[in-house]
Fold this sequence. Notes:
Elements: E1 25-31, H1 36-39, H2 57-75, E2 81-83, H3 84-91, H4 95-108, H5 118-121, H6 126-135, E3 157-160, E4 163-166, H7 175-187, E5 198-200, E6 212-216, E7 219-224, H8 230-243, E8 248-253, E9 267-271, E10 274-277, H9 279-282, E11 290-295, E12 302-307, H10 310-318, E13 323-326, H11 332-340, E14 347-350, E15 353-357, H12 361-369, E16 373-376, H13 377-383, E17 395-399, E18 416-421
Amino acid sequence: MLSASPPTTPTTDALQLDVRSETDALQHVIVHTPGQEVALVPPDSRLDLLFDDILFVEQAREEHELMCRVFEKVVGTSGAVLQISTLLREAFEVEEARFDFVDHICSIARVTNLQAFEQEMKQFSADELLRFALTGASPIPIIVPPLPNLMFTRDLAAIVHDHAIISHPATAARQREGIVIKIILNYHPAFASFRDRIVELPPGVTFEGGDLLVAGPETVLIGLSERTSFGGIMAVAEALFERTPIEHVIVVDVPKKRSYMHLDTVFTFSAPDQCVVFPPLFVGDDPGNVVHLTRGNAPGHFSCTVEAHLKDTLEMLLDRSLTFIPCGGSDPLSQQREQWTDGANFFSIAPGVVIGYERNRRTFDMMREYGYRVTSVQGFLSYYAESEFVPGEKVAIKLAGTELSRGRGGPRCMTLPLARSA
């Protein structure tokens, strides 16, 4: 087995925000390799922290680091993978960023009486505040839970064209994560030229990045899910229509269940003309779970059409035929089992180059049937150890994910792309 390399400290001088598709070639992506915050999840309160199980952290780290090595190989540069802990630590070099972070967490954590220690926290060094932000550990005599879900960076924001939409997490366990990404975008020097392109949603709505997919330069999908509210969708749609070239917002009603917590747990793009889907939600005579929003005649006004089929709607808007590849194959039980273990949650690194959990064997069998060469992470990295990767054939890469999958999120959940090149 190939040994995992440690996360690299990225160079952010040439950082851009530019996402116009789910499958364009990746340039920069934010991740978080699991660390001490995951080791601090108590078994008795794991459900409160949104974990069905506790992870073996060392193994989870190795799996995650191997995934990052694949990203760097496909992109072709070691600066492609940005660790969110590194970005936050660098942002905390700015005193105003540290103070702003403390002000925000005091405003959302009044039940724990954090505001009583506001001045003490504002005296923390950058390293002390980083440790507190991720793990809750600090010299102050108060118990603050860790952030084990930070590994799922997709949910912190959504990048559409050159705008960043900051999420409003639906659960208390993830509220601090929204503050983390807000501090990075507002204070890290790499994002200085994008300060006027940050979209903050109004109070009272919920939206998480796993519910937004950029289908094309003018079209996004947003899931009405357990984690994203109708008000959140309307706020995101209004911002996109007003500030970006987006012309169409396709709202997909997702069952309000933990196993379907975001749209990307049941639907992802694997290539410009192919999607991996959970068949019960998208295949049938009339699923009736799709609403098409278009820009209205005045700000905040939309035109709304109920559509019968997501596939037909996307083919019309994208002007190309699409193939829906069934997660779990043709067997209904296998579809349910593999959707549960993120079989539909592929992450596209380049057109037709995707990574997913190897445990979803029947889904990978379907990928092979639809023209993908299936290989393990180790096989992929070994094959290209002495050469550059040049996209051409379709490749589906199997990530072990034995421990990562216990966190209830796949490779797309663990990635926040900042830029892709057409």
